[in-house]
Amino acid sequence: MARTVQARLDDHSERDLAVLRNEGRSDSEAIRLALHEAAERRRRKSALRLEAEAAATDPDDLAEALRVRTEMDALSAAWTDAG
Predict the structure, then answer these.
(1) From 71's CA, which of 11, 38, 54, 81 has a CA 20 to 30 Å away?
(2) Alpha-carbon gap, residue 66 to 59, rounded angstroms
(3) How far apart (Å, rounded) are the C-alpha atoms in residues 49 and 8?
């Protein structure tokens, strides 16, 4: 189902739309692309946030993070002592 949308663009949005127009896209194509890309970024951020929240409560992940941190602290101390 095609839907018609009207929007008032500010100067910044006009410049952003011009970037997409300069790639040979019509206004409609440019706006659809911009909406699609914005939605994809939000989906990825949401997925990463959920993954980070899961890792933050997973005992195995927490233990591994502590192990790596301890190892990195030891390497850092050795590096500082060598200087």
Answers:
(1) 54
(2) 11
(3) 32
Q: Is the pTM of this model over 0.70?
A: no
User: Backbone phi, then psi, for 81, in 5-degree steps?
Assistant: -65, -30
* Residue 56 C-alpha from the chain's centroid: 19
Q: What whole-number distance in Å separates Cα of residue 53 and Cα of residue 60?
A: 14
| pLDDT tens sequence across 23-81 | 999 999 999 999 999 999 999 999 999 999 998 999 999 999 999 999 999 999 888 77
**Quick one: tokens of 61?**
């992940």
Dist CA 31 CA 34 (whole Å): 5
How many angstroms separate the most distant Cα atoms in the chain?
67
- Residue of 42, 44, 18 whose CA lies nearest to 31: 18
Q: Count of residues for the chain?
A: 83
